[in-house]
Amino acid sequence: MPHIKSKGHCLSCPVRNRSIFSDLSEDSLEASIKDFHTAVISYDAGESIFHQNDKSDESSYTLRKGLIKITKSLPDGRVQIVRVLVAGDLFGFDGLAGKEYNHTATALTACEVCRLPLPDLSEVRKNNQEVDSSIMSRIIKNLRQTEDMLLELGAKKASEKLASFLLTLGRSDIRSDLNTDMNNDIQWVKLPLSRSEIGSLLGLTIETVSRFISDWKRKGYIKESKGYIQIIDADGLKKAACTEGSC
Amino acid sequence: MPHIKSKGHCLSCPVRNRSIFSDLSEDSLEASIKDFHTAVISYDAGESIFHQNDKSDESSYTLRKGLIKITKSLPDGRVQIVRVLVAGDLFGFDGLAGKEYNHTATALTACEVCRLPLPDLSEVRKNNQEVDSSIMSRIIKNLRQTEDMLLELGAKKASEKLASFLLTLGRSDIRSDLNTDMNNDIQWVKLPLSRSEIGSLLGLTIETVSRFISDWKRKGYIKESKGYIQIIDADGLKKAACTEGSC
DNA sequence: CGACCGATTGACTATTTTCAAGTGGTGTGG
DNA sequence: CCACACCACTTGAAAATAGTCAATCGGTCG
What we know:
Structural class of chain A: alpha+beta
Number of strands of chain A: 12
Helix content of chain A: 25-40%
CATH architecture of the largest domain in chain A: Sandwich
Largest sheet of chain A: 5 strands, antiparallel
Order of helices and strands of chain A: EHEEEEEEEEHHHHEHHEEH
CATH topology of the largest domain in chain A: Jelly Rolls
CATH class of the largest domain in chain A: Mainly Beta
CATH superfamily of the largest domain in chain A: Jelly Rolls
Oligomer: homodimer
C-alpha cells in the first residue's frame, strides 16, 4: 500500500537538480517552498498512483525514485503504454485541463513521488519565471515525445519499432536514468519493461517482441543477461530492422 | 504562395471568441494587444506553414480560417498525421521547448493564420492569468488528445480505428468546426481528409480505408456524397467494427 | 520438489499490405 | 463538344506481416 513518508524537503530533495525547481537558487527555493504542501509518498512496484477516468486529486507529482509507466486502456482490457517516467519527471498535471485523469500512472519499480497541490504549482508558476518556463517546457516536451511515438506506432513495421526502441535505450543520455542502482557498467542497460510491456508500448504482441529479440540475439546484434541488455552491433541492427533510415 | 494580408486586429478577429484571448474583456484585450506584432497570413491548400526539423521562427500561430494538418514523417517519406487543426486552434508553440519544429503544418484548405511572436505570447502570459491558463489548458489538451491517438494507433484493429474516426466526425461538437461553408445540413459532415490522409492519420493504407468504407456503405451504415458523409446507423457501425466497446 | 511466471518457439490463422487493374468524375485542349 | 489525361478512389488476387493458440523451457520462490 502507498504510504506517506514525510513532508517533502526541497532543499535536500534527491532530484532537486532534475526537478522543475532545478533552476532556482537555494534562496529562491527556500522562499518559494515555505508555503508548499508537499508530501513524499512511496509505492510498491505494481501499485498505481492514479487511474484513467478517476477524478483528478488536484495534485501534480514529481518522481523522486524508481520508474513509472503511464498507460491508457480500452474497455476490453487492451493496454497502451504512453510513456515511461524517470526520476525528476513531472506528472499528474492533467488536472490543469480537465476534471478526470486521462491516463493511469503505475509504479514499474518501488517508487517515491513528491505530491504538490496544483494551487501551489500555479502559485509558484506565477511568482517564478524560471519555474513557469521549466514546467511549460516539460509539458511541451511530453507533447513532442508523444507525437514522436505516434509516428513510431502509425508508420513503422514491428521490427522497426523494436529496433528503434532498443537503440533509444542504448543512447547514453537515457542509460543513466535507467541504471539507478549499483550497476554502472556502461555497456549494459537495464531493461525497464517486460516483453509484454514492450509489446504494449509498441503496439505488438509479446510473441512478436520475443521473436525479433531472439532472432537478433542469434545474429549477434544484441546480448541479454538477467534483465540487462547490451547492443553489440548497432549498425547490424539498423540494417536488419530499419528500412531507409527509419530508426 | 503565402502572403501577409495585414496586421491582425484582435477586436474584430473572426475567431476572437475561440482563440486564446476568448476570456478577455474587450478592454483587457485592447490593453494587451497594443504592443503585439501580429500578422495575418494566407495560405493556399497544400502549402506549408512550417516544416519538421526547420528552425523555429519564434512565432506562435492561431488558425483563423480553414483547416490545417499537423504531420510527422520518416526519412523514406512515410507520413503520420498527428492532428487536424480547426479555427481558433493555437499551434507552432514548439519553439517554447526546442530550437526546431517537431512537426510539419500544412494547409488542408485555403487558410488564414494569425502569427504572434513568442516573446509577445510570453509577455501576455505573464500579464494575464486568463490567457496564461487558456494557453496551458490548450497545450495539455493537445497532449491528452495525442495520448488518445496513441491508444487508437497502438491498440486497435483497422476497423476499430476507422469506425471511431467516423463516429468522432459525427459528433455534433466537431461538425460545426468542419462545415465552415454554406452547408449547414446537420446530417452531412464534410470529410476533411482524403482516403489516403485518413490512412495516414490511422496508420493504414488507402486500400484498407477504402475497403471498410465501401463495405459499410453497402451495409447501409454510412452514406457519402461529394465529399460529405452521413452516419446512418451508428449502432450498426459500432457493432460491426468495435469489439467490446472500443469506440 | 513442485508451482508459477516470464519468455521462447512452432504451427497455424487472420489481418493488412502490396501489386495491379479498372472505374468514375473533372478539367483541359483540340 | 468530345477525346484525353489525370486523379482519387475502388476492387481483386496474392503475399507479407503480425496475431493466436498451444506446448515447452528455465529460472525463482515457497
